[in-house]
Amino acid sequence: MLTRTTDTYTADNTQITMETCNHSSSSQNISQFAHLNAAGYEHPQQTFESTSIDEAANMADKEAPDHFQNAIRKTTLLDIQQKRGLPEAMSLLSTVTKDIERRVNILLSQHEDDFFSAFRSHALNVQRHIEKLQECANAQKNLMTRDLKIKTLQQELQWFVEESVRLDQICKRLKGDLIGWQARTAALREDRDFLEKELKETRRKLRRAELNDHNMSAKRMQNQGEELSTCLRSEHSKTLHDTVDSLKRQIANLTATIHRLQNDARRNSRRGSSLVEASKALGRRQHLERFLVECINDVKKERKLKGIPTASLGEFEHLSVEEFLAFDRRKVLNALLSNDNVLRKLYCLIFPHKGTVE
User: Fold this and answer.
1) Is residue 289 in some structural domain?
2) pLDDT exceeding 90 applies to what percent of the chain?
3) Which of 28, 214, 233, 342 is buried most, with the most CB atoms less than 10 Å from its CB?
4) Is 16:59 a contact under the CB 8 Å cutoff?
5) Is 341 in contact with 292 (CB distance < 8 Å)?
6) Any residues with CB less than 8 A from the CB of 349 and at least 6 apart, and which?
């Protein structure tokens, strides 16, 4: 009985298929084959064996690599064709199989080396590509950081422009207020000069009136003395006494008039000095008021820079208790107490008997 088997080997993407015939028969079949051979009958095994060997040779020629194709064609296949015996063919095939396995292992090792070298080059290429991508990512990150910095600087520039415009408006408003206060100061100075002139004129008039009164009283006394001497010579002693009494009364009246005029002069002098002091006090008060307004405006500026809503500058008197807090009041008090004029005024108000502090 003949059994057909197929052996397949793989080497470098090439398949070599060999068909062998296994002889399994009883001793009776062997004897029948021997008689047929003796009769000159061609054994089917030999035909099949030769056919299988030819096919294997053709496939080896087509599919085997060049570096061991000639060896198979020249040695192995020729030996198989020459030796028609099955055991010899089997041994030869096993030898060829081992040789093919060795060659396949060699090819596999070569392919493995080629694969590792290709993998190494590919890994290097991938690493270079990753480095390029990392450089691109770093460049993009730097661009984003630069754009963010530019945007931040633009926002800061816009804020500084707005603050400069706001401060310019505040300066213009303060300049207008300064012009108004300067006009008021000039008016007060004119009033003070006018009052000083009036006071000096009043003093001159009082002195002139006093001199006139003295001259008139002297003339009257002289005239009255002459009249008295005349009366003493001509009239009676009683008339003389009456005249003396009338003269005394006139002298008393003139003396009272002189005292009254002197009191009026002193009163006018005190009034003029009080007016001068009032003008000076008004100037000091206006100066202190301006300083208070500046302190409050400074506190409000600080609050506005910190983002706390406040009333408009110059309208601090309309601030409510909720807007002007205790912390802001303490700031205003600290700023006020840092001024020497304020301290001097407070000292004079608290200790009036000690006079003015230098």
Assistant:
1) no
2) 18
3) 342
4) yes
5) no
6) none
Nearest partner of 265 among 218, 214, 199, judged by Cα: 199
pLDDT for 43-74, tens place per residue?
Answer: 433 333 344 444 444 544 444 445 445 555 55
Where are any strands of DSSP class E within the chain?
A: 2-11, 14-23
Can you read off the two tokens belonging to residue 209?
Answer: 């009136």
Enumerate residues 6+ apart whose C-beta is below 8 A from 111. Answer: 12
Strands 14-23 and 2-11: antiparallel
**Torsion from C-alpha of 114, 116, 120, 121, nearest 10 degrees:** 20
Counted domains in the chain: 1
DSSP label at 324? S
Q: Which structure tokens are listed for 233?
A: 């010579």
Environment class of 207 (CB within 10 Å of its CB; exposed 0-12, middle 13-18, buried 19+): exposed
For residue 60, is it within any domain? yes
pLDDT of residue 132: 94
Mean pLDDT of 267-286: 74
Contact status, residue 77 vs residue 99, Cβ threshold 8 Å: no
Query: What pLDDT, on a 0 to 100 scale, did the predictor assign at position 214?
Result: 74
Residue 20's region, left for phi above 0, alpha for psi from -120 to 50, else beta, is beta
CA-based Rg of the chain, rounded to a whole angstrom? 70
Residues of the domain holding 76? 2-84
